[in-house]
Amino acid sequence: MKWLKTGRGNSSACPNCRHAIYEKKTPKALFTVPSIWKALCEQSPEGLHTLMTEIWAGLQILWRRKPDGKFTVSDLLNDVIIPALLQCANSDESRQRRSYDPFLDCYNLIAASWDSLGRPDTATGLAIPLVRLARMMSSASSTLPKWLTTVPRTNRLFWKANACLGLTDPDISWDTIMAASDNLMGTEHFPLLYLYTMLISQSIAHNPQPNSLPTRRHEIMNLVVERCCTKIGGDTWGSKPSNEFKDVLVVVYEELRRYQLEKKKLSLRGHDGEEGLVRGVWALAGWSVKKS
């Protein structure tokens, strides 16, 4: 009995036939930043969609209160992230699910840490990736039509794009997007490039378009930078896009514009199978710039 209950490995099973004699209790999850973040990322698509829906709702309220969009970390924590986590932790689904609730653990850790530090206007620990997510969603809200924020696959794309940046980077960086566009077969930061490409596609679909692109190079560049860098990234993305990346971006914009407006194809929306199109557009753009 001692070996069955305290031994290592599969000691709950018969050593001869491996039939399970009793079910081992699952050890309690660690209450640490990496373990809670990992548990959050492993939540069901439905659970993550619920959290994202609450974040979108909080951002809408914040935009009405501060139309300039200059949200502090305190604004995002107090009015968006903490209420969203608390709402998910208190949901009926959360009560029925299990004894361990990562949404509740995330709320407890962020709220307790923030209070203990005197509620500073900075993000620490588990608050870093969630504040970054809220900023990512906020900067995209001027490009993305409101109905798409209610679609689970779109919210899943936002979550993956944010999660690929890890736990410690406070901001999205143009350097990361440029690196992902150079290494299209890499998987680490491709979700961020995919999300960025989807936002460009939505900008083409829902913003007024000129009948034809300007013919002068600097006019084309100004149009693309304004729509694909200034409007999408705004002041919240770190570093700056290089001139070479801007040249590639012009081709990406032209190809997506041709794909949607001339070929009458649907804009990118997070559907399965769009990854190949994203990689193909960026690969073609990079090849075209290098050739010229």
Q: Overview of this structure, please?
A:
It is a single chain. The protein folds into 2 domains: 33-169, no CATH class; 179-291, no CATH class. The protein is built from 13 helices and no strands. With 292 residues, it is mainly α. Helix 7 crosses helix 8 and helix 8 (152-163) packs across helix 10.
Name the features.
mainly alpha; globular
Layout: helices, strands, pairs:
Elements: H1 2-6, H2 33-41, H3 45-65, H4 73-89, H5 92-97, H6 102-116, H7 127-140, H8 152-163, H9 174-182, H10 190-206, H11 217-233, H12 243-262, H13 274-291
Helix pairs in contact: 2-6, 3-4, 3-8, 4-6, 4-7, 7-8, 8-10, 9-10, 10-12, 11-12, 12-13
Number of domains: 2
- The average pLDDT value, as a whole number, equals 88
The structure class reads mainly alpha
Helix content: 55-70%
- Largest sheet features: none
The dominant shape is globular
Question: In whole angstroms, how far apart are the ends?
Answer: 75 Å
What order do the helices and strands follow?
A: HHHHHHHHHHHHH
- Beta-strand segment tally: 0
Number of helices: 13
* Gyration radius from CA atoms, angstroms: 23 Å
Unreliable residue stretches: none
Residues in β-strands, percent: under 5%
Condensed summary:
The protein is 62% helix and 0% strand. The longest helix is centred in the first third of the chain and has 21 residues, at 45-65.
